Sequence to fold (294 residues):
Amino acid sequence: MTGLLQFAEDQEKVIHRVEILCLRYNEGRKRGGARKELQDEAIKLHDENSHLFEQNGLSEVFYASHFARYLLQDCNRGEEGQPVLKKALAVYENELKPESFEKENPESTYDVARILGQMGHYAKTQGRTEEACENYLEALRLLKNGYGNHILTAFAHKDVADSYLFVDQYSKAEENYQKAIAILEDMQKANHREAIPVFKNWGICFENSCKFVESREKYEKGSGIAENTIEGNHKWKVWINTLDQLLLHTRYPRDASTASRIASEVLQMGKELELNGWPRKKELEEMGKTHEKI
Fold:
C-alpha cells in the first residue's frame, strides 16, 4: 500500500492519496498500531481540496466513513463526528440515487453501511435507542442486498443484536446473534477470532434471560476460540473469561473453587495488559480475594 501511495503522490491524484492514507491508518488500527499521522495527513489533504470531493460523491462518502470513525472511536469527539456522518448520508441520499447505487457500487455500499453503523453507535451512547436500532437495521439491509452472506453482514446482525440486548429485548437479540453465527459457519469462520465478540455477547444475552446452560456454552465456546486463535495475553480473553468465571461462581457451585482460581489468573492477565478496567472487573476481584482466603 506504501507503493500505491507513492504512485498517487507522483501522479498528483489527491483523492487517491486521501483514500490510501485512510486505508493505511485503518490497517494499523486493526493491528493495534494505528499511526495518527496518516489520518491527520488525510484530513489535511481533504480539507485543502474539498472542492474535488464535492465533485465526487463516492469518494466523499468513503472519506466521511473513515473520518467520522476516527473522531467517534479514536478521539472520543462524537459531537464533531455527527455533522460529518449526516453530510455523507445526505450525499448518498440526494446525489447518488440509492436504488441504482446499491446495485452498481457494492464496495461503496459498505461505506454507507459503516456510516449508519457509526450513527447507531453514537445514538446508543446518547440513549436514543430506537434511533440506534433503525440505523443498524438499515445498515443490515444494505449489506444483505449488496453482499448476501458475508462477514460484513454477520457483524451487521451483531450490531442489531447488541442494540436489542441493550434494551432487554432478548428474543430479538438471540435471533440476530444466531443469524450472525450461521453466516460465519457458512463461511467456515465460526471458529475464527472474529466470532469471539459474537459468542461473548450472545452469552450475556442468555445469562440476562436466565438461560444459564446456554450462556455457559457460549462463553466457553468463545473462550476456547480465543485460546486457539490468539497467542499470549489479549483483552478479549480477559473480557470473556471474566464473564465465564463469574457465571460459574454464581450459578455452578461445584465449579466455584476452580472459577475463583481462574479469576486470579484473568486479573493478572488484565494487569499485564495494563487494562485500567473492564466490565465486571470488581466482581472478579472479589472472587480472587475469596480464593486467596481459601
Q: What stands out?
A: Residues 4-11 have pLDDT under 50 and may be disordered. DSSP finds 16 helices and no strands in the chain. The two ends are 56 Å apart (CA to CA).
